[in-house]
Amino acid sequence: MILVAFPEMRPLAEDLAPALGADLLTLDWHHFPDGESLISLPGDLDGADVAFLATLRDPDRLALPLRFAAATAREMGARRVGLIAPYLGYMRQDRRFERGQAVSAPLFAQFLGESFDWLVSVDPHLHRIARLQDVFPMPAIRAVSAPLLATWISTNLPDAVLLGPDSESQQWVAEVARLAGRPYEVLRKVRSGDRSVDVSVPESAALREGTPVILDDIASSGVTMARAVERLLAAGTAAPVCLAIHAVFAHGAQDAILSAGAARIITTDTIPHPTNAIGIAGLLAEPILSVVTALDLPVAGTIRLDPNPAERTTE
Ligand SMILES: O=P(O)(O)OC[C@H]1O[C@H](OP(=O)(O)OP(=O)(O)O)[C@H](O)[C@@H]1O
Hints:
Elements: E1 2-5, H1 10-20, E2 23-26, E3 28-31, E4 37-40, E5 49-53, H2 59-75, E6 80-85, H3 104-113, E7 118-122, E8 140-143, H4 146-156, E9 160-164, H5 170-180, E10 184-186, E11 188-193, E12 196-200, E13 211-218, H6 223-234, E14 241-246, H7 253-259, E15 264-268, E16 276-278, H8 281-296, E17 303-304, E18 313-314
Parallel strand pairs: 1-2, 1-5, 5-6, 6-7, 7-8, 9-10, 9-13, 13-14, 14-15, 15-16
Antiparallel strand pairs: 3-4, 11-12, 17-18
Helix pairs in contact: 1-8, 4-5, 6-7
Bound molecules: 1-O-pyrophosphono-5-O-phosphono-alpha-D-ribofuranose.
The site of 1-O-pyrophosphono-5-O-phosphono-alpha-D-ribofuranose has 17 residues, from strand 11, strand 13 and helix 6.
């Protein structure tokens, strides 16, 4: 396999390539003065399984370069072209909330499916969509970060009380709490705009008995985390630690969370950011190798990969 990293993903690629037994190349992305891109692929890709590593935090900026890269790899003789997108943008707009809105999640999935033979991502924002495979036309596998998060909590915050900021977060908070052997609570969130969120905290003595750890999949504007921190402090807890899987962090988000009173912010390296403290390379190798191997099996219709997690199904 040849792993081709988009430039900002080189640090993660260096951790991942040995686990895949892959050669590592870095794609050259030249930006012309008029805003257009020139993508250049190094090396000999003839006959190779090629995996691009690009995190889709800014998907509009990356969409065409990804398409150009995949098409060029095929022109250079790649036998298969996959995408490792540790963070997968556009999964939040999974339905039409108001008349006339584009339902971006399936449209973006279709767009990627036109270029790539397979996809691996880490904990994509699957809220109303049950499985990646329900929106992606090609084999698409979710790597689950809960064991890594639980290990980090057990090692660094053995007195943690986990808190999900909204009902949707229960899915990962409950699993991380179970694996770490720690209690958890779920807060209530009401969003009325991009940066307008309110959070309410249940009356619970357990909240004041350990270090509160707010766990969410994404911190974007940071408003969800910041409101949760404020409400917890008002309820008499210790300063919370904020743990996000994906450090999306729009401008000012990190400051907003810290100004609200968070003790610290911890993220995984699905998106490069100074708060990264949990490396996900070890999580990615197995699903990538599984999907590539499965595509080589002689199939008549259905391929079933290792059934854990549930998303690991291609039909
Ligand atoms: O940092 P922020 O800008 O607050 O965004 C982060 C929040 O947004 C997502 O929820 P989602 O958008 O699915 O739900 P919501 O609109 O109810 O917050 C995500 O699960 C976080 O809870």
